[in-house]
Amino acid sequence: MRNLVILFLLSTILFSQLTEISGYVESEGDGFIIGSPQYFGYNKLRLDLDAYPTDALTIKASISSKLFWGKSEWSFGDFMPVSEELASTTYTISDTTNIDFLYSQLDLEWMHLTIGKQPLSMGGGFVWNPTNIFIQKDLLDPSYELVGINSFRASLPINKSELDIIIQPNDNLESNIYSAFNTNLFNHNLSLVGLQMNQIELNEEFSEESSKVLGLGFSTVGEIFGLGIWSEYLLKSDINFDNPQNEFVIGGDYTFDFQTYVMLEAFHQDNGAEFNTAYNDIDLLNYVAGNTKALAKDYVFGMLKHPLGEYSSISLSGIYNYSDNSYIAIPQVDWNPIDNLDLMVSIFKSVGSEKTEFEVQNIGGRLRMRVYF
Amino acid sequence: MRKFYSTIFILMLCSTKLFATELTADAILDSMNTVMSPENSKATMKQVIVTTSGRERIFEYEYYSGNKGKNLLMRYIKPKKVKNNAFLIANNGDDITVYFPRTRRTRKLASHAKKQKVQGSDFSYEDFSGSESWKEDYTVKLFESSNKNLYSLEFIPKDDIITSYSKMQILVRKSDYYPTELKYYDDKGIHHKTLFLEDIRVIEEFPTAMAMRMVNHIEKTETRMEILDITYNITFDENFFTERNLKKGK
Fold first, then answer.
1. Contact map slice: B 9-28 vs A, CB within 8 A
2. Contacts with A242 (C-beta within 8 Å, 6 or more apart), sequence order
3. Nearest to B151 by CA among B191, B180, B127, B185
4. Is residue A365 within 8 angstroms of chain B, CB to CB?
5. What is the pLDDT of residues B64-96, one digit of tens each?
6. Which of A246, A275, A324, B21 stands 20 to 30 A from B203 (CA)?
7. Could you check whether the bond before residue B38 is cis, i.e. omega within 30 degrees of 0?
8. CA A53, CA A241: separation in Å to the nearest integer?
9. Domains of chain B
């Protein structure tokens, strides 16, 4: 079925006179010491197809294939501080071909409509976005592109503001609904958010349970005294308002005259896992499954970045888990030696006592090369 | 009607030229803004960045300017890596929003980000903001120029203005009030960059620098910009300089 879709998509778009094809090839190699040194990586092809049948209509599709190499059989204990019973549970990763995006967009003067598997990014947070109920970023690589979400999105301009409505239908038609009123207030971008979502969580028997959750929140991006400042807040609860939960992010950034850039972001979630001497397996699996924004309650992310010449930069970023006192530090060099080529080298150094979130990996490294075409 | 306005415009230029020796700095700045800030423009630009090692990096982008340079939208066309990356500079540089097409994310930049280089070039976001607000934002003084065909203006930012420059010096042609050179001084008063405006031609009645060169005297680098095509005969609808339109790369 998937091949048919791809064939249809390719043939439709390739024969259009107004098609643009671009993409990239990305190769990544990773090495970590997990007891003993482990090596793995992938080669990825990403193909982006854009077509513009009329001025008001846009069709976009992205297909990616990933071929993995190296270690393919993983156990939960390789990357999570799970209990010994769960640590030896294994799974195998295999090559994938996915349609990352497939959507059409209609731009009218009074409405913008997007239907299909589309990228959804919202909220001011760099690493964490409490108001994004659709997808989460990779904690160790928050700026990496995310796959699309099958949804319907309508944006209605109202003077200089906008009403944004996103509906993600589920198989039981209990849709995730996000609505936001986006405006500008005192030179700050402000989004007032109301949402409904199906929260999925694992129960004690490790089976999924779904419950309807309502949420109210906001997101701001602006500046105070020359500092870039952003915040994001979500209050969510079940329909009876029995168990209200808060999630928030606050962050700031600054560029010094000597071009060094510094960023700090703090995140809190009431429903984060408790850490005493270890985390509960259920909490760990909920996090890995993407059912929670993060594992623990409180985190701080920091980044320091400085350009080295015109096309390279050196940075040091880190995430500190305030709840279990563990952290991971990531020094990284980015280099763009010629047009359309990105190189990235990073090292991951984890520090924490036994069974903490970042204790498992010890030390690792990553080399990534991306060639755009 | 258009011809009528052109005639008035030329007459105004000629009349100010007659009294050139008595002009004040503010009057010269007003005249410069008149010739520098057509109501709207659309251009395709080529940007060549000469790195410290002498290598050249070439970018191409679309450039849209509206409301006399108050609003600006730039969208990269080449190379593939940055295609459809775009930024919007609104309200004379007070509001900068960047757009990343791979994540379809827009981000409002705080004023500190104006200092950042745009795609590794010698231009910062701040350098792209229009000159319309300079009269309010700077104290302008007129100085003797060693070249009798040029006015020399000095711009000192007022206390409440956030800028990475402590001073700008601009050389302006007496013949048509078009600038030929802008010198930027950093917060320590060191001459940091110079923008040369070259190959000045009259396009649709407006003097236009078809080539610009920003020389960074500290880092010994240079960025050249060439106008590949330009028109001033264009109008934009009211939603053109908005975040929504920023996302619409083609």
1. none
2. none
3. B180
4. no
5. 999 888 899 999 999 999 998 999 988 877 788
6. B21
7. no
8. 48
9. 27-246 (2.50.20.10)
Please list every residue in chain B whose beta carbon sits closer than 8 Å to the beta carbon of residue A162: 244
Contact between B59 and B46 under an 8 Å Cβ cutoff? The reply is: yes
Task: Report domain extents, chain A.
Answer: 21-372
Triad B235, B240, B246: Cα angle to 5°: 140
Cα–Cα distance for residue pair B119/A61, rounded to 1 Å:
27
CATH class of domain segment(s) A21-372: mainly beta
Residues in chain A: 373
CB pairs under 8 A between A and B: 90
The beta-carbon neighbor of B57 closest among A157, A229, A339 is A339
A296/A291 Cα distance (integer angstroms): 13
HEC letters along A242-282: CCCEEEEEEEEEEECCCCCEEEEEEEEECCCECCCCCCCHH
Q: Do B113 and A255 touch (CB under 8 A)?
A: yes
| Secondary structure letter of residue B75 according to DSSP | E
Which sign, positive or negative, has the C-alpha torsion A86, A87, A92, A98?
A: positive
Summary mean pLDDT of chain B: 85
Tens digits of residue pLDDT in A6-40: 655 665 555 555 577 899 999 999 998 877 888 99
CA distance A364 to chain B (A): 27
Other CB atoms closer than 10 Å to residue B132's CB: what's the count? 17
Neighbours of B43 (CB within 10 A): 21
pTM comes to 0.84
CA dist., res. A239 & res. A174, Å (int): 14
Instruction: Find the distance separating the first CA and the last CA of chain A, reported in whole Å.
Output: 28
Contact B197, B178 (CB under 8 A): yes
Q: Please name the residues in contact with B27: beta carbons below 8 A apart, sequence gap of 6 or more.
A: B16
Return the closest-CA partner of residue A130 out of A242, A264, A272, A243. Answer: A272
Classify B4 as helix, strand or coil.
helix
Distance separating alpha carbons of residues B239 and A333, to the nearest angstrom:
39
Cα angle B4, B10, B11 (rounded to 5 degrees) comes to 90
- Whether A141 and chain B come into contact, CB under 8 Å, resolves to no
Q: Which of A132, A134, A117 minimizes the C-alpha distance to A63? A: A117
Chain-chain contact of A310 with B221 (C-beta, under 8 angstroms): yes
Nearest-angstrom CA–CA distance, B77 and B61: 5
Are the C-beta atoms of A46 and A80 separated by less than 8 Å?
A: no
B14, B184 Cβ separation under 8 angstroms:
no
